[in-house]
TrEMBL record:
GO molecular function terms attached to this record: oxidoreductase activity
Organism expressing this protein natively: Streptomyces omiyaensis
First and last residue of the signal peptide: none
Entry keywords, A to Z: Oxidoreductase
EC number assigned by the record: 1.8.5.-
Origin organism lineage: Bacteria, Bacillati, Actinomycetota, Actinomycetes, Kitasatosporales
Listed InterPro entries: Glutathione-S-Trfase_C-like (IPR010987), Glutathione-S-Trfase_C_sf (IPR036282), Glutathione_S-Trfase (IPR040079), GST_Omega-like_C (IPR047047), GST_Omega/GSH (IPR016639)
UniProt cross-references to CDD domains, sorted A to Z: GST_C_Omega_like
Protein name listed in UniProt: Glutathione S-transferase family protein
Region (Disordered) residue spans: 291-334
Class of the enzyme per the UniProt entry, highest EC level: oxidoreductase
Pfam families assigned to the protein according to its UniProt record, in alphabetical order: GST_C_2
All residue ranges annotated as the GST C-terminal domain in the record: 123-273
Start-end of Pro residues biased regions: 314-323
Length: 334
């Protein structure tokens, strides 16, 4: 928190990369690493989506932390015995401490852990998705889409940068604001950017070009959480997503695209925000709404053209162990 009450995200991540040539000491190797996510977390949601789109399930295993973590760590409270079945740890903090004894920064997801040593390799969420789409190319499925095509990279970077600043992080700046002035400023930036996105998407199916790109992967996790969490819990309440015609149709289009909606668990999302953020919601009461069934209604975006996977193909269904509950399921064991 800054002196004026503005929320400032700590971005001091472990920046080691897993690359095809292993230049940071961690070469791409099937079965060596484990991606740790939480269904609740929008930053981790990006990695889960890209892993699905690239078809890396068979070479990069995925552990899923539960939504009800404490102030120290994401916890594996949904797994039998409360331990990740591959790493054998109760909390993700253990893997950070193995990498850096005395580690004092944020224990965040997504994180990729080196299974043989149990050490975190990286938690740099922006670089992780880019590397899954490029450095892991030798192990991607046939038909994997190109999410960061060279001809569109400058525009993707510009659009994604604005989305991060004003929307992805903007909702947190509203929700965690410590003063009225800081909240008002964040709220105005958020809605100016959402209005800009609404106008941009009125006549085009995707944010950049005519296929799904990194820009779409980065916007979707915030949109899918908007009405369930950010609208009320974070006071981002000028309008609901369902009241923004282009953005609501765009979000439904992506939700119904394989690799996007099949990573979403609304029960875990709501449990995390409404229970863990006890300074904002001290009662810990989790709302029953909104009704998620609207995510499966027709969106009509096909009329704008474009092909979600370009010359590629949709991913197959997720592995049985990674399937999310049907819309409307709400049980969370803590």
């Amino acid at each position: 928190m800054s002196s004026d009450g503005s929320y400032e995200r700590d971005r001091a991540y472990i920046g080691t990369r897993i690359t095809a040539d292993g230049r940071d000491g961690y070469p791409v190797e099937p079965g060596r690493y484990r991606l740790i996510i939480a269904r609740a977390c929008p930053w981790a949601n990006r990695s889960a989506i890209v892993r699905r789109l690239m078809g890396l399930e068979g070479v990069l295993s995925m552990g899923i932390a539960g939504p009800l973590h404490d102030e120290r760590s994401w916890l594996f409270h949904l797994d039998p015995g409360g331990r990740d079945p591959v790493l054998g740890i109760e909390g993700l903090r253990e893997a950070f401490l193995r990498r850096e004894p005395g580690y004092s920064r944020g224990v965040t997801v997504p994180a990729i852990v080196d299974v043989p040593t149990g050490r975190v390799v990286t938690n740099d969420f922006e670089q992780v998705t880019l590397d899954l789409g490029s450095e892991w190319a030798a192990h991607q499925r046939d038909g994997a889409p190109e999410l960061y095509p060279e001809r569109w990279r400058d525009e993707i970077d510009d659009v994604a940068g604005a989305i991060y600043r004003d929307v992805n992080n903007g909702v947190y700046q509203c929700g965690f604001a410590g003063s009225q002035r800081a909240y008002d400023a964040a709220y105005r930036r958020l809605w100016e950017r959402l209005d800009w996105l609404e106008a941009r998407l009125e006549g085009r199916r995707y944010l950049v070009g005519d296929t799904v790109t990194e820009a779409d992967v980065r916007l979707f996790p915030t949109l899918v959480r908007f009405d369930a969490v950010y609208h009320g819990h974070f006071k981002c309440n000028r309008q609901k997503l369902t009241e923004l015609p282009a953005l609501w149709a765009y979000a439904r289009d992506l939700f119904q695209t394989p690799g996007f909606g099949d990573t979403i668990d609304f029960a875990q999302i709501k449990a995390h925000y409404y229970v863990v953020h006890d300074a904002i919601n001290p009662t810990g009461v989790v709302p029953l709404g909104p009704d998620p069934s609207g995510w499966l209604t027709p969106h009509g975006r096909e009329e704008l053209g474009g092909r979600p996977f370009g010359d590629g193909t949709p991913p197959g269904p997720p592995p049985p162990s990674e399937r999310v509950p049907p819309l409307g399921s709400a049980a969370i064991e803590g």
